[in-house]
Design brief:
homotetramer; 342 residues; alpha/beta; Rossmann fold; Dihydrodipicolinate Reductase, domain 2; globular; oxidoreductase (chains A, B, C, D)
Chain lengths: 342, 342, 342, 342
């Protein structure tokens, strides 16, 4: 029997992508859909690509509306999830697609988000060491940020294998949907088409402590992260170019072996054949992660590059994958490794 | 038991899109994959978005390779399908995604394609009047062109209802994948990004006689078509803006009623609510067709606009839809009306 | 001695493009720059591409600020120009880049704009018959709309020559800058990239009466216009695909002769060699207009297609060109026919 | 009196951009234009944006055609410049836009380019320490690569000031025109739109030794460079994100002071106000360089980011700037710091 799922925040990009996936998920029946400023509107006007739900009307995000579901997804602005989650019983699976419960360190949270720390939930990145165990049977899931998903998957094998120095330099390009649907001048099509630009430079992007948390756990020591995000002229996709000094004795072969081992049984991560590099277009609309690594001998650095769809594996697909584990379903249910290209 | 399907021309855009759909089709098992200049290569290098098929090797397009399948899809350059089809037995379902068997009029074929007419097969646009009946149990299917799919669906209800004069003016914008994967200077990203340009102007585009054939059949008289295609800076999608003088007495209400009637039971065509207009992004990767109509009273013209994904409903999705009918499967099997957006 | 020019509305796209051109204009000294909600900000934060003006601070749009200039450009929202213009003396050249003074028919104005008609100023499209004479020595100029510029230039030669029937069908694609810089959800990069969509369908777009006014004047009789604008995934450019039934006896040769005659001495209009078609990329950032025509014999229609940059020839370049004439300067001063491509 | 300039390789992107600039250059008269496979064709068919040159016919690249010019620009494939340059007299200013004469180290050249080293010419990046002196009166100029231009300008002030450790990590995104006009499948619009992908990863990109050469000269010691280029979905532009460990005692203030000093008198380099970051759209079609720096205290790294137009400052604009110096003209003649945006 299908589990009944509600989606709070169904009018945004994360909510829309989640609904796209849930519509094809055999174990889920879509229940209440809510949206604050858009409550009362039909979904067909807000998410015109979701034809089967075109006549569904958005409700307000209230405890009453969200009651009576097996799973509640929260696609709300940062800082709003805790209040809603409190009102949902301990038996409901709550999947938070916001940042509220990702960080373990309250001081980090307060420094980067500027409000009180709500707590820490099991972290929804199954591919990390111990990742699946943390999610099995859980009733609370913190879905990772899109950049931390791409970066952690690109680099953790090097840290787990102990072959990278604990100072990572990361430059990532993201499609504009990562910035959300609220209209701002710098996100206008006229501004972003034909333009690459950085933002949040110098260690101030909120996803930085999350990367540090994941990579430090893999390394068994604190990993320092220099992270520069850039906005790319495309709707979706993250390309994360990550590097770190190689530990003594690393070779191209030992590097590749570490990655082959890390991803050998992963249903969604594809270590590409040597010589082929990730492209965001190849994972468009898919839950797949493409990874490739190289050892730059002259610079003595490991270069690890990953491509994901920021809305799928980076948000809604990752949420569904973790939900599947929590519900005891096959982890790949309702998810695909097939991109829409060209 | 699943039908076994071969795909001749698996390295191109039409072949790739077909494989994307067949991978999710519960009634199809993917058999031989062929490609001429790419024979011997792994599909992972040519279609990196199709991860589950990454290690499949392309064979040459020979009768032996294509033998032993229930369905054979031909995604070959125009003029090459007939020779291949002849070597496949009458019990094999052959679905031609090229132009070879679309036109009924041999003179039209010869004028527009410059070679001998190979014949006419049942036409794979189920939504047209009599369209499904022609496909049921058929062993040969001619998949329509992408522009004729968009244009015929936008205009046939007006002609069937007798409310449009038989002179249609059509301007359509297509994504670049419609021009194929063979590299040509004018299709370089540097050239097409930021640019709109027409081509095949003045009645010379090969899809013109196909539109005339479809609309004339709906109208019961010869419909004259002025068709101007334009190349738009996007990978996928067709937006067809079609108009014709209104017959005497047409009103906005009678126009809308004609379209509501035509599409009432269509699983893939969505007549949008009044005031909402089609967008190619909404049908990205989906088999859906979005249609809207308006009556321009001052100009006394009917304006009908459709949006499709040229590779899905316009090519590979249309092929699967017609195959489903021919095989006696549910028409929507393996197809979706959900787009990938934003 | 250079004329001193003020720009009211310097923070928007039209104002920014105007400043880009004026910076290279040898006869103009840039004076006051104003912006309402942005008053007090440096231009470098609002128009980061205009480095030489980066430290200029925007003033409020008041009579005092605008006083003491030889030329005042108004790049204001529709309906706001008249009030500002009234306060400028009769000896100041006022160039309105808004719609307020374009239409001659007050009823048309009120129907399409919903407010009282402010009047009619000399119309800034020098290439139209009598266009230059109307501008020479004028102290008031109404800059045409971007679509009417592209459409009128594509079609007036056919109407002047009496070779087209008075019912024109126009489908035009515009880059997103035509929709302005005010942030709206449907203009987000995430929404527009990869998408073509129509708007203002059915004769309701405000540029329709302006096209009718221009083409009717050329034809010497009322020309009926069916106009469908579409939004294209590019920042700039308009491609206007225009057609009309041919008058009796028209041939490809007589059609071409009419266009050659109309544009023989035009410095900014290029009738392309036969077989070459306009592309918006070729006029990017330039004041040039590319035009091509064809006679579709089967449909008996004239097809005329033009490409312009909507911000240059379609707005700010057209404004400068008309200003040059009004000031008695060489018409091409400060303007270029060279596009930025690829 | 204007100098007469020939352009060998006028049909490609570098040649086209050079002609765009030379057309507005008051000190240059455009002489012979050559192109190999395109010899005999009109430029209007190959570079449709250069209307004033539309009727010019391309000649073959022969000594006779190039004779009799004051300046000869070579926009030829790598490895072809030396043979042509030899046939031009010592009094002709030869500006090589290819790579042939950039590197000082013959072994580096041979390792990265796989052929014999032709020599080393004065290097056309005036902003580097000693850059202008090397060009004054020179009759030979090696125009820098596009990536080395962006990277060297972003990082040399830190090395000159001795505030960065000699290990730089660089990730740069380039528009597709950097890959040239020769049609290849992975450069098709269908492939590049919506996609970010890396290439030449692991220290193998040919521009790496050029960066090392420039940065090492600034640092006075060998600088190690890890360089990862990525292809971005835009026609033009490079965004270079560069970083290095800070030397002991660096602060945000001392970092900024170093950059202010380095660029204080540079006509084309703009160190943006604090808090504003470069965007490629802001330098579209311009010779300007936008630079911004930040000190990431937690990671103890200097982050320096630059944006250029790869075809303008990165190629043809840089060539004109260096030519101006060599000819004794004002360095900014014919060049602009104004971008075409949005």
């Amino acid at each position: 029997m299908a589990a009944r799922a509600a989606v709070a925040g169904a009018s945004g990009y994360a909510g829309g992508e989640l609904l796209r996936l849930l519509l094809s998920h055999p174990g889920i029946e879509i229940g209440a859909l809510t949206g604050n400023s858009n409550a009362g509107q039909k979904l067909g006007a807000l998410q015109p690509h979701l034809l089967p739900l075109a006549d569904r009307v958005l409700a307000e995000t209230t405890p009453g509306v969200l009651a009576g579901h097996d799973v509640v997804f929260l696609a709300l602005p940062h800082g709003q999830s805790a209040a809603v989650a409190e009102q949902l019983g301990p038996d409901v699976l709550v999947v938070d697609m916001g940042a509220d419960f990702r960080l373990k360190d309250a001081a980090d949270w307060e420094r980067f988000y500027g409000c009180a720390h709500a707590g820490t939930w099991p972290y929804g990145l199954p591919e990390l060491p111990g990742g699946r165990a943390a999610l099995e049977g859980s009733k609370r899931i913190a879905v990772p940020g899109c950049y931390p998903t791409a970066v952690s998957l690109a680099l953790f094998p090097a840290y787990t294998a102990g072959i990278a120095e604990p100072e990572a330099v990361i430059v990532a390009a993201s499609g504009t949907s990562g910035a959300g649907k609220a209209p701002k001048p710098h996100l206008l099509g006229s501004e972003v088409m034909g333009s690459m630009s950085p933002y949040g430079v110098g260690g101030v992007h909120r996803h930085t402590p999350e990367m540090i948390q994941n990579l430090s756990a893999a390394a068994g020591e604190r990993v320092c992260v220099s992270f520069t995000p850039t906005l790319a002229p495309m709707p979706r996709g993250i390309l994360a170019t990550c590097s770190a000094k190689a530990a003594d004795g690393v070779t191209g072969d030992s590097l590749r072996a570490a990655y082959e081992k890390a991803f050998a049984d992963e249903p969604f991560v594809r270590l590409l054949p040597e010589g082929q590099w990730p492209a965001t277009a190849s994972v468009y609309g898919s839950n797949a992660v493409q990874v490739q690594v190289a050892y730059d001998e002259a610079a003595d650095r490991i270069i690890a590059i990953s491509a994901i769809d920021n809305l799928t594996k980076g948000t809604a697909g990752g949420a569904v994958q973790s939900m599947n584990i929590a519900l005891g379903l096959d982890e790949t249910t309702g998810l695909s490794t097939i991109g829409v290209a060209p």
